[in-house]
Amino acid sequence: MDRLKLSHIDEELDSSEVAALRFLCLGIVNRKRMEGIKDAKQLFLRLEENGLLDNGVFLAELLHTIRRADLLSLLEADSRRPEETDARPTLSPYRVMLYGIYEDMTTENFEKMKFLLSSKLGRRQIEASNTALDLFVEMEKADLLSPTKLNDMHAVLKEFDQQLALTVKRYMDEVRQQNPTRVPPPPHVSMVFQLCYYDLNHNPRGLCVVINNEKFLGEELKDRGGTQEDANVLKSVFSRLGFTVVVHNNLTASRIRSELRELSKNDFLAHDALVICVLSHGEKGCVFGTDEKKVGLRELTLPFTSKNAPTLARKPKLFFIQACQGDGYQEGSVPCPPRPGEEEVRHSRLQEDAGPVRGETVAWDADFLMGMATVPECKSFRNTSTGSIYIQELCRQLIRSADSVEMDDILSVLTRVNREVGKGEYLTHKQMPEPKYTLTKKLVLKYV
Is this model's pTM higher than 0.85 or not? Predict the structure, then answer.
């Protein structure tokens, strides 16, 4: 790589960031060769010796991990994230996990950790550890810590920080699932072992945009009574989950397209995720604007692909669609009683979010989730006073997950939504939601 570019990167990194890079490279570069490195230029020489700077991919992964993506512009044009190239990443997920713990550990908890480890590490090792990364290295030297030896780390973290302990447990479970014989992973470990959780570190997490169509301008589609209840609960829940919520009421098809195009032009670098909720009438593969013209589901997602919105690359993009997807009804094999607490959902107040025509199906790109209120060809139901069956259940399950100590990911939440909605009976018919996704990691939404 261009030495001048590497020199510029070196000038932008402080000593703590260099220490983090050095830690992340342990196991890839011989530990002895890493001793004495004080600045990034020396580290780059070691990486160059190991052929890790040939195309900039490994360095790009390092910079992303320490949250210095702003320096990627100094790399060559092909220095993209590993998922966007044919290069095989070599950054150890074990070290990425430990680095994440270091980032989230408070000074108070670091001192507690040193105290708890003082019986297993010598006084010299404890006093030489100025940061959690130093302490991890000393634990490795004492054979208390390795990619397949994490019980001591987990036990210590449980004493003062359950969330950090859970991070270690996730990693242990992931390794156990992928490698049940517990054979130590090779130095260049596959990305399949990487911690599969999306980062949610910013506050606010990102935007939640709600398109709420209630009043329709033509003669074929009825107004959607009760949709304001859906908009209200979505705003309440996603605000608590750390999102900035924007509600657009009564948009025509062209306005839906233009609002999403403008939204896609935003700089999402400081955002962790994007949520878009569309509440309207619909048919297979489309939703309707208030002018009764259709907008394909593909048109909703296309502006936010990594090509069109590069600062959303590798970040989850969630779409929740409350609309019918056909004019058919789902039937159950046996009669099902209403769920507890739903007696007030009167048949006279249930309506369908159906439309008069059919459209195209949706195309997918990485890190998208589309939660549909119903399967293709079928209607979904909405109570004119309490809101739609799907959105109300979705919000109940998001609240349940956020309140729980368990780390339920979004797919677990949507599975419960499927189960609960599927239990009910609406105008003597059934409804079954359908999530479609190309998420590449687990997404856990908690209150901020």
Answer: no
